[in-house]
Amino acid sequence: MQELFQLIVSGLATGGVFASLALALVLIYNAMGIVNFAQGEMAMFATFIAFTLISRGISYWIAVPVTLVIAFGGGIAIQRLVIRPVERAPVLTLVIITLGLATLINGLAGVLFGYIPRAFDSPFPPSSYGVFGVYVGYQDLGVIAMSGVVLLAVYLLLQRTTVGLTMRAASHHPEASRLLGVSVSWMLALGWGLAAAVGAVSGIMVAPVLLLEPDMMQTTIIYAFAAAVLGGIESPLGAVVGGLVVGVTVNLVGVYVPFVGGDLQLAVALAIIVAVLVIRPNGLFGRASSRRV
Amino acid sequence: MSSVLRHRIRSVPPRYALVGIVVLLLAGLPTVISSYLTSEWAQALILAIAIMGLNILIGYSGQLSLGHGAFMALGAYVSAIMARHYHVDYLVTIPIAGILTGGVGFLFGVPALRLSALYLALATFALAVVAPSLIKRPKDLTGGVQGLLLVQPDPPQPAKDVFAAITGTAMTTDQWIYYITLFCALILFWLAWNLLRLRPGRAMRAIRDGEVAAAASGINVAGYKTLAFGVSAFYAGIAGSLLGLASGFISPDTFPVSLSIQLLVGGVIGGLATIPGPLVGAIFAYFLPIESDQWAPGQSWIPSQVATVIHNAGPAVSYGALLILIMIFAPNGIVGLAYSGYALLRRRLRGAGDRETGHVPPDPQTV
Description:
The structure holds two protein chains of two kinds. Chain A is mainly α. In chain A, 73% of the residues lie in helices and 3% in strands. Chain A contains eleven helices and two strands, in the order ααααββααααααα. The model of chain B has no long low-confidence stretch (mean pLDDT 84).
């Protein structure tokens, strides 16, 4: 029983990482109707920036916000340079471009930072905290707290500020927003910047566990896909719930289903994606969509 | 030569002559280049087969798969397991691998029917990432991480004799495998050409351009979408099986995610929804990283630091940059550029097009 609780808590921690990355995917999906395959690589690159800053002697708590600002700027720059010329192109074109972006960023990280895995220090102590015989690592608690803060911040930004309202309006009704004087294209850029920053948080949180290297996010992005699909790809709340559910499920299945074990955990994510798409393609929180012919 | 025959030859469209020249060049290639280079060209042709499969799916039916590396892996392992554990002749296993992979692709296409192109991309990408760890699991069958060693066939005596008569040197195994690959590629390209210019191809393009309109016109949308998936997987299966033959060894690492990306890059560079596109794209996607690797350090005018950076960047940077640039500036790839260049040239030569509407007077030969 204690083991079960411990697995659930550590599952929630990894789930928090998946939730942040899934939220980043949802933000871009809502802005322009595509899944950004480069989201994981963008997060990995931001984590390398944080690593560089920290190894120059800057404190973790200063380096991380600075990285988030850089990631935000980088996201906007990518949207302006690469996505804007093809904003109105078919989904297929856009998806292929984000894949190209993923490959490009991965290669650039390899050139700039090398392929040797590096240890990324966590600001949280490695010890754990016991309540009623259940030991919870400070690392896990820290990750849960940090993802909670990020998700809350995104929620407040989107629901309680004028900028958030404008962003949502621009994605729901681009034409009407344009008539009301909203610069839709810049709102999309803002969406990319925000997504890049939120994704960067997931990279920074997962780096102490996975070791930092260019391919670090390749598995995490699959879990994030599973989380976003499970929650309904257009629902920010769904991404968070989906992330937590995927985190806990993968953790439990890895231990309690001997066939899966440690090495087939990723296949669980694939199974979740396929199952959701077959049984309930709109996910838990998504609405059925209708299209005009 | 009778005048009828002469007339028929003269009325053949010029592009048929071009096809004939390309086939002759490919067939003659091993007689002029080294055996090692021949094996590289065999790999490029294998890539071309797989990309043709992907092209049928992406270019003609508008469904995006990022998991064709996984289908290639399935084809390769079917062949390897049959050849190793059941001692079936490898050449016999190639079509079986294709059909089996095609069947699996067909089954995968059934749930894919309900999905938009985007969700399909997600699911197939996850498949590509998971495939290596799935292969490692049944150790007795697949050899786990170590993979499977395969026996490469010796060329048969008649082939040896012909080759020796032309070049004066003995035919190597690599050259024989090249000819097997070329044979498969020719048949599969011919099949694809027939499939795509006739009824199924028209139906797939109609579905790609407007699913609801296609359904309203009486096209069996579900049937053709799954058919496209099945055929596409069939091509990938054969390509995978040939890849095992050409490299003589397969392991889970033969089929990484980057293989699926490489297929996509090849399709996009060559030109989606064209028949020659996959061949052109495969040649580029295969030789570009190799050549750029060797080219930069050999150039004296490039500073050595820059050359080292280019060398270290490897294929990932050039692939990624190419994907983005081509999708933005030339979405129809090299073949698309060539087509539009040719059309422009013809218009200039024929003259007198209407500048306003771009309307061109009919070709005098066909009137």
